[in-house]
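Supplementary Methods S3. Complex input for the magnesium ion-bound model.
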Amino acid sequence: MPYMKAGKTDDEVFEENKQASQQHAEDFPKPKKTKREKLVEDDHAPLIYDPQYILMVNRLKKYFPIKGGMISKTVGHVKAVDGVSFNLKRGTTMGLVGESGCGKTTLGRVILRLSGEKTAGQVLFNGQEVYDLSPKEMRAMRTKMQIIFQDPFSSLSPRLPVGEIIGEAVREHGIVSSAEFDDYIDGVMDNCGLQPFHKDRYPHEFSGGQRQRICIARALALNPEFVVCDEPVSALDVSIQAQIINLLRELQEKYKLTYLFISHDLSVVEHISDSVGVMYLGNLVEYGSTENIFSRPLHPYTEALFSAIPVPDPDAKMNRIILKGSIPSPANPPKGCKFHTRCEKCMEICKYAAPEWTEVEQGHFCACHLYNDAAADQRAAQAMEAAKREGVAPEKEEEAL
Ligand SMILES: Nc1ncnc2c1ncn2[C@@H]1O[C@H](COP(=O)(O)OP(=O)(O)O)[C@@H](O)[C@H]1O
Ligand code: SF4
Ligand SMILES: [Mg+2]
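Predicted complex, serialized as structure tokens:
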């Protein structure tokens, strides 16, 4: 029905209404478009790819939000990985050690992009930033980067027979043609010490060690280049542990695999690793060749950790260093050196200034003020003065337990 308003036409009435509504809209302030702020700024110079390294990690950070209150607001962050850097050579094994809760699993998962977005830093796999890949590219990359977990039982579907568990992703990613499929799976199982008749059995029919073999076969079937082994033998009997470690070493040699081997068992790490990273509260505190780390540990935390390794000689005296207190919360880590609340060698500067990541000898890195050069000493002294001017109070040292 046509509008009848003071003899105006429909078009004139529409135009009038449009102008009026525009005027009203201008009376209300427009909501500001706020850009989502980054939690932390990337504070690193970009990496330059060096082809001898399959993996290059640069100042990698992963913070998990802590939710609180009625409307589940973010009230803080768990700094699970807080600026980790290392380079891993192709075909070698890096051991990663540290107390429970220091961020080892998170670091492994963040490298594989299995934990949502990173908070900051870089992960270059074969020179490619993992976090720049499209979903399609990431799917292809998944076959190259695999993970083996501590608990083989919970990571295996109880409803699928073993052949299907190992073959499912092989089929999905088209690793081999359907004509070759059965022989291929038999071959992978054989390499991992499993028999062809195991294919039709279910995970609950196997022992812990065999279940871990199934997990290894599942990862290996995708033809990976890099495998994160997250405490792969911690849940197994000691006698079985050696078999699985030997299997991992054989497969590494055969397929030129690179491992990131996470474990709290230092003897296992010494046995399998070419290099070792020691982690404390989200940071690497020391990194170097296995030989250097075990024979000349630099960082007081590494010294304390290694002093607890049992010595086979009953006459040898163990100089065990007892760490004071418990590991602080990664949601509220101590200022300055994060280890200062438990360190026997803590100095005044350690309470205010974070130590720099320094190459103390070739390929042997450490973050501790004891190994600063003159320039780093000066920067630390300036940081301490600035912190004191701002009234930063040092944390109280924890009582020994
Ligand atoms: N998904 C998550 N959400 C919140 N906090 C997490 C999550 N995963 C791990 N954390 C926290 O991050 C810290 C490091 O955990 P984790 O990487 O599992 O240590 P580790 O493997 O060395 O025992 C712990 O304080 C843990 O509670
Ligand atoms: S920086 Fe200081 S507190 Fe930290 S490990 Fe070194 S000596 Fe100990
Ligand atoms: Mg873990």
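The longest strand covers residues 73-89. DSSP finds eleven helices and twelve strands in the chain.
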